[in-house]
Amino acid sequence: MHLEQLKKSFRLDRGMIVRPISNYLYIFYSFVFILNVVHVFWDHPTLYSIIGVLGMVMTAISFPRADRVFKILGVVLLGAGAFFFFSGEAVWRDIPTFFAGNIGLLFLLSMLPWMNSVVKAGRYNKLLQSLLGNNARGLGSLYIRSEMTMVSLAAFLNLSSATIAQDLLKEQLKDVKMKIKNSFILMATLRGYSLALLWSPLEILLATSIFITGANYLEVLPWMLLIAILGIAMDSFIGKMMFRKEGINPPSDKEKAPEHSRKKLTTFIFALVLFLSIVVFLGNIIQLDFLFAVTIAIFPFAFLWAVFVKRTRSFLQIGWSNWKWKTNHLSNFIVLLLSLSFLTETLNQSPYLQYLQDPIVSLEGNPFLIMLFIQAAFLVMTVLGVHPLATMGIFGGVSELLLGAFPPVTLTILLASCAIATVPSAPYGLIVTMTSVALRMNPYQIVLRNLPYSLFLGFLGGGISLLTLLIY
């Protein structure tokens, strides 16, 4: 009896020790993020190595706390990275820097709750939910409205749009069967998100393709808009047909849009346009990286927005608790993103990178086959865990060869559309990972659901780029 009491007391004492440490991880993570901010303005190799060492510590802390699927993914990514490391010319002292590459993405993820909190504090989530639900006769018609809403949100909020829209849809579809609800949410949000990226001048994949080819954005824009419009039309039709037989409970009187909803919606749109303008200013005038500009703009903008709508107190209350909880529970993202950073960096210094470039050289003089190869390369590499930006860099290494086969505008459309088409089907991509965590699904289940869409959008982009060959 006495022994049992001692065991129970030990378990309680252990819980009292472990629980506070896990509750205060946000302090350690925030310290690493602050160092990353300092590095943006003071690019010193020693500081970058320190950030990498702390990133390795973050990975070690997060592995036991991550979900099983992310532990497996982390082991696979680290194992593949180790193989490329030993096959390349990198040395041991380089290893810490390999873990520092995606710290900025983790910083962005930790700041997203502040934008979501001002939306909740200002009760804009209720407005958007009522707009989604009003007059929706079934999931078929709701799918069209959801995808259009996602496209609109993603154009302004980028990654924040996913969490906002998914939270709204989870509440809206709480009475729908789990399998149908998850399919609906992952299709409408991820596909809508990718369709918004096609034409956004702030999208890193589009910007990188323009940098590689030297094309004029204004020449590329009409064609990318055409791909986006056709993609929205086709996917909305497919979604409506898929979910046409599924009903949805009509919104209650409390959920219906209030009479002043138009004014509130106008305020919401104005705020989003203002936020986008601030990010453009920071990116184009101050010359900050896009992701970093979004990250550092979130809290000041959200706070001032809360002050403007007179919701400062509720914003701080909601935001502080949400931010601490989300930052303390970044384990899945830390394991995935820092392991992926290690893999990408070691691959870039491995001789196996050359094997990825050789097939393009062998296809010289066959534009159509090159198009098919580029689309297949983006899709296969993405499914294997290589970020499309890294694949874009591979093609950038043979850009002179590619520009000999295609005009700059054609090549830009081809590279950008094929890369962005893989976004909803990237098992280790940020948006898929966020959706995986939100819906408690295996990332590869999401990939299988969106893979036909990625193939379709890639072929659509390739077809439009073929059309431009007749003009340029």
UniProtKB/TrEMBL annotation:
Keyword Secreted on entry: no
Where does the record locate the signal sequence feature? none
Write out the transmembrane intervals.
Answer: 21-41, 47-63, 70-92, 98-115, 190-214, 220-243, 264-284, 290-309, 330-348, 368-389, 401-431, 451-471
Q: Which UniProt keywords apply?
A: Membrane, Transmembrane, Transmembrane helix
Report if keyword Lyase is assigned: no
Would you say which domain of life the source belongs to?
A: Bacteria
Instruction: Write down what this protein is called.
Output: Citrate transporter-like domain-containing protein
Organism encoding this protein: Halobacillus karajensis
